[in-house]
Amino acid sequence: MDRFWYDAWLKRRTYYGIANRRVLILQEAVLLDSKQFAAFSHESADIHGEPGGTFSIFGARILGCNVELVPNQRIVQAWRSAGWDPGTYSIVRFDLKEQGTQTRVLLDHTGFPVGDYDSLYSGWKSHYWDRLQLFFP
């Protein structure tokens, strides 16, 4: 099993009339909402955004369930690629921190199969961070 950290900064923006609440918006309105996730990712998403809720994102290429949701702070998910062996899950943790006019997103992805590091690392960048930057200009 392998592990990596990713540290991203996202600029704040007013969204749905809620000013200066970027962490809450990122967590509840984008990462845990099917419609908004599909809007930023440009791919289908079925997300049940409560603890224990399941998700299927990026056209069912990524599947899992929400393990822990701490409002304005953290999302922890059991996460798997549809191509992995049945029953193989990794753990994805998003730590969200307001810092001035930006939100700092710390990603910790652990327990994925050895050999998947490069494809996962590039996938996080192209499917999450690059697209979120465009969604929150």
Short recap of the structure:
By secondary structure, the protein is of the alpha+beta class. It has a single domain, classed as Alpha-D-Glucose-1,6-Bisphosphate, Chain A, domain 4 (2-Layer Sandwich), CATH 3.30.530.20. 27% of the residues lie in helices and 40% in strands.
Would you write up a description of this structure?
With 137 residues, the protein is α+β, with helices and mostly antiparallel strands. The protein has one domain (2-135): START domain (Alpha-D-Glucose-1,6-Bisphosphate, Chain A, domain 4). 27% of the residues lie in helices and 40% in strands. The protein has a seven-stranded antiparallel beta sheet. It is globular, with a radius of gyration of 14 Å.
CATH class: Alpha Beta
Radius of gyration: 14 Å
Per the CATH scheme, the topology name is: Alpha-D-Glucose-1,6-Bisphosphate, Chain A, domain 4
In total, the number of domains comes to 1
User: Given the helix and strand composition, which structural class is it?
Assistant: alpha+beta
> Describe the biggest sheet?
7 strands, antiparallel
Strand content: 35-45%
What features would you highlight for this structure?
globular, 137 residues
How does the SSE layout of this entry go?
Elements: E1 2-11, H1 22-31, H2 34-41, E2 45-47, E3 54-57, E4 62-70, E5 74-81, E6 90-99, E7 102-112, H3 117-135
Antiparallel strand pairs: 1-7, 2-3, 3-4, 4-5, 5-6, 6-7
